[in-house]
Amino acid sequence: MSEENQESKPEGKQKTASDKSEKKEKTGPTYTGYDLDYFLAPQDLLKAMRKMDETGYHLEDITCLDIQEGFQLVYHLDRYHQPGRVGLRVIIPKENPKIPTISGIFPGAAWHERECYDFFGIQFKNHPNLTHLLLDAEFDEPPPLLKEDSARKDLQQICPDREYTPISADSEEFMQAIRNCSKSKNRS
């Protein structure tokens, strides 16, 4: 074996100060894409979205994950005048996947909700037009992005090292965080 190959071959890996700083850097907008990321109880969704709208946020999109605990809906929001990307997560049960529509607050949500309906079967209560968006109108099979039980990951695998307890949309912590989101952060 040449000297060059010997030098590139890893020998027992030791933890260094830079390893610790790398772990610390696995939070924040550079790593996660979010300045704030909260779980909400489903019954707090509309209240939280109204508060986001009142503080100048716009909806970017809504995504859905089929996980062991149920369906995780992730609402991505940001604002133009003072960037501060926020992820609001809600988990709803698989047995009765219903949640209120937010299209009355953010009209563009109607499209994203229809997509979640198409691919995961999520029912958005009071949606103005909950019909298939991308699938054929006659489609009557199980939603195509549902996973087999053995393929579903749990929250710890998807969002390690974080708190899953829902925050109240009425809490001062939530409102203060939303108001101050990225005021002093360098997002570059």
Walk me through the structure.
With about 190 residues, the protein is an alpha/beta fold. It has one domain: Beta Polymerase, domain 2. It is built from seven helices and six strands, in the order αααβαββββαβαα. The strands form two sheets. It has a four-stranded mixed beta sheet with strand order 1-4-3-2, with helices on one face. Strands 5-6 form a two-stranded parallel sheet.
Provide tags for this entry.
about 190 residues, alpha/beta, Beta Polymerase, domain 2, four-stranded mixed sheet, two-stranded parallel ribbon, 7 helices, 6 strands, globular, disordered N terminus
Q: Briefly, what is this?
A:
It is built from seven helices and six strands. The protein has helices at 3-8, 17-24, 29-32, 45-54, 109-120, 155-158, 172-180; strands at 36-40, 58-67, 70-78, 86-92, 98-100, 123-125.
